[in-house]
Amino acid sequence: MKYNIKTIYVAGGCFWEIEAYISRLKGVIQTEVGYANGITHDPTYEQVASDKTKHAECVKVNYNTFETSLEEIIKEFLLFNGQYKQYYFIFIIYYKL
């Protein structure tokens, strides 16, 4: 099998729900949860949940471009958020290396 691994970061609600959904998609190799874009370094869950650190719950997604595309990952992420009517802000970060 051919591999070309790319990474995208997505945020838009509870990272455990997003990770559980995204990790099952064809072509997704690995996922990892964390926090992004806040004002403190290495926050705890309790700090983030308080909304004082300005962090977003984020999922790092490594995927194989021979099995899926960036467009498919984004489409599924947006469909997931729309389906469950999560009214969180959404952001997507993609690195082209």
Structure description:
By secondary structure, the chain is of the alpha+beta class. The chain has a single domain (5-64, 71-94), classed as Peptide Methionine Sulfoxide Reductase, Chain A. Helices cover 28% and strands 30% of the residues. The chain is built from three helices and four strands. A four-stranded antiparallel sheet has the order 2-3-1-4, with helices on one face. The chain is elongated and about 45 Å long. The two termini are 22 Å apart.
Which short descriptors sum up this protein?
four-stranded antiparallel β-sheet; 28% helix; 97 residues; elongated; 3 helices; single chain; Peptide Methionine Sulfoxide Reductase, Chain A; alpha+beta
Write the layout of secondary structure elements.
Elements lengths: L4 E7 L3 H8 L5 E9 L8 H5 L6 E9 L5 H14 L7 E4 L3
| Radius of gyration using CA atoms only | 14 Å
Q: What's the helix-strand series?
A: EHEHEHE
Structural class by secondary-structure content: alpha+beta
Instruction: Sum up the overall morphology in one term.
Output: elongated
CATH superfamily label: Peptide methionine sulphoxide reductase MsrA
| Beta-strand content | 25-35%
Q: From the 3D structure, determine the CATH topology.
A: Peptide Methionine Sulfoxide Reductase, Chain A
Taking all residues together, what is the mean pLDDT?
85
Between the first and last Cα atoms, what is the distance in angstroms? Answer: 22 Å
Amount of helix: 25-40%
Give the name of the CATH architecture: 2-Layer Sandwich
* CATH C-level: Alpha Beta
